[in-house]
User: Fold Alpha/beta-hydrolase from Bimuria novae-zelandiae CBS 107.79.
Amino acid sequence: MAVGNLLLSLLTFSGLVQSSPLSPRQNNAWEKLPPTPKLPSPISTTKLDINNVKLWYQEYNKPAGGDPIVFIHGGLGYSAYFGDIIASVMKNHYVIAVDRRGHGRSTYNADDVFTFEMFAQDTYDLLKAIGVTKAMWVGWSDGAATTLAGLLDPTITASITKAFVFAGFQSVADSNATYVDTAIYPEFISRCKSEYAELQPAGNFSEFGGKVATLEGTLPTWTDEDLARIDGAKVTISGADHDEAVNLAVPEHLNKVIWGSKLVMMTGVSHFAPMQDPVQFSRRIEEFIAG
Ligand SMILES: *[C@@H]1O[C@H](CO)[C@@H](O)[C@H](O)[C@H]1NC(C)=O
Ligand SMILES: *[C@@H]1O[C@H](CO)[C@@H](O)[C@H](O)[C@H]1NC(C)=O
Assistant:
């Protein structure tokens, strides 16, 4: 999330990073980046025209009814990173997967300046366009910041019945400065680059990645007073006990300033918890839906 380093990585990684021999330290689940999960089929080929971009989305188990659970992935990745969780939660619930503007299969405009408010507006407008007026939002990292932006917007928050904010942050200072030194970091960046090339053969990952780097290097800038405006009764703040990307004290702080919110910590996992321990993560989501 450190902008300079992310930009540098984007410019210098021309291909796959050679993986170094596994050191004993990487035997811990929180130090591994499991393969990117697959979304359950079918994979929609439809994109919706929303706010001058084409947004990809997929509904699962709509007949289950009720407010859908919308999964909002992290920066540079796409909806498939939530694939294991979606596969589990969709068994009993109406679920919607979305690729945010620019990410995965969704497009962006060359002159876009990404903001979390823009992403929240896109998500809200996409849901409205498909007839969804109430939804539960589950956000991870940049998706968690998108969820917070939605909760802070008077119109959008009225449509969010509940929110699960995993590995979220309120400012650039919440980023862990040593994230770029971890083994996972270059592996994640180079993986996103090759996935992007597959999903958007005509895309320019340097340009797209530069926009994400600028976003993460400058936003959000929410104060504690800003966050105190959120109706915490419908919010679950979640974090990972080994998060290497967001400072470890952040979940507790968000929980404290978003009055009335719940705090649910995941154990034995890092920023990539939905891939490292999908059973634990899915259980927490089921509790959130039921709670
Ligand atoms: C891709 O984007 C980068 C950064 O914006 C730019 O320098 C480069 O020329 C672009 N490449 C192509 C093939 O358009
Ligand atoms: C940053 O992450 C490392 C693990 O990669 C951790 O040891 C350290 O405590 C974290 N720093 C903060 C401020 O949370």
